[in-house]
Design goal:
alpha+beta; 3-stranded antiparallel β-sheet; 7 helices; wza like fold; 10 strands; 262 residues
Length: 262
């Protein structure tokens, strides 16, 4: 009877160790979910590419607007907070010197007045400001940037946090690389993206293991997106699996020795 107990415990230990392992298939990105023969595996992906839409300004965004003219007097007038100089700006100083978008969608520029910006892209805002400033100075160069251009990454990643996006466009893999990639306990098949919209936050679930993510409209990250990498089911069990297996192995060894030395 004791021999049977030892065998059962040994088998349970083996099953526990195997179940605690995260398979390579669960950790590999961009797999072909479709069934391909090895000889039929495509060399180049022919899926339709996605053209990411431009971000449209929403209330509570912060815009950094720079007006540069050859005449220091005009630069001083339209850039009073920066002294009219064109020095290098950090994200912190740009936030201080930026124009917050009101809840009704306007910013207020000194000597120019209120300008409606909500629902417009940065290019559209710059085009409108170019026309507006023609009334004041003919050779002004307008720069418009979004100050709060960042992505928040939380959950099962190496370094969760909020990261500034320094490029006009990044995809979800580039965003995750900022946080040091997902951990081995992250559920890559059910990643969630939370995107603000004028109608409230949108939540999108997508699968990073499936190569079809390349043709998804959520492949590219928008400003203020939140990426949540959820843990796999049984993560707590997997983290403690080594302790459980050690205990079971010790018990199995004990019973085995008892059977051998009876």
């Amino acid at each position: 009877m004791k021999k049977h107990h030892a065998i059962v415990i040994c088998l349970l230990s083996i099953i526990l160790i195997l179940n605690s392992c995260v398979t390579r298939q669960k950790m590999t990105y961009l797999q072909y979910v479709e069934s391909f023969e090895v000889s039929e595996m495509p060399i180049y992906d022919t899926r339709p590419s996605v053209t990411p839409s431009a971000y449209k300004i929403m209330p509570y965004d912060i815009l950094y607007i720079r007006v540069v003219t050859p005449d220091p007097q005009w630069s001083e007038i339209f850039n009073p907070l920066t002294g009219g100089t064109a020095g290098a700006m950090t994200p912190e100083s740009a936030s201080l010197y930026g124009y917050p978008v009101s809840i009704d969608g306007f910013i207020e520029i000194p000597y120019v007045g209120k300008q409606e910006v909500v629902g417009r892209t940065l290019f559209e805002i710059k085009t409108e400001l170019d026309s507006t400033f023609q009334s004041y100075v003919n050779d002004a160069v307008i720069t418009v940037r979004l100050v709060n251009n960042h992505v928040s990454i939380v959950g099962e990643v190496a370094r969760p946090g909020r990261y500034i996006i320094n490029k006009d466009r990044i995809n979800v893999f580039e965003a995750l690389s900022l946080a040091g990639d997902m951990t081995e306990y992250s559920n890559r098949q059910n990643v969630q993206l939370i995107r603000p919209s004028p109608f409230g936050p949108m939540v999108k679930d997508f699968n990073l293991i499936d190569r079809s993510i390349l043709s998804s409209e959520f492949f590219y990250i928008m400003p203020n997106d939140v990426i949540y990498a959820p843990p796999m089911k049984g993560r707590t069990f997997q983290m403690n699996a080594s302790i459980y297996s050690m205990i079971l192995s010790s018990v199995a060894t004990f019973f085995t020795l008892m059977v051998l030395f009876r």
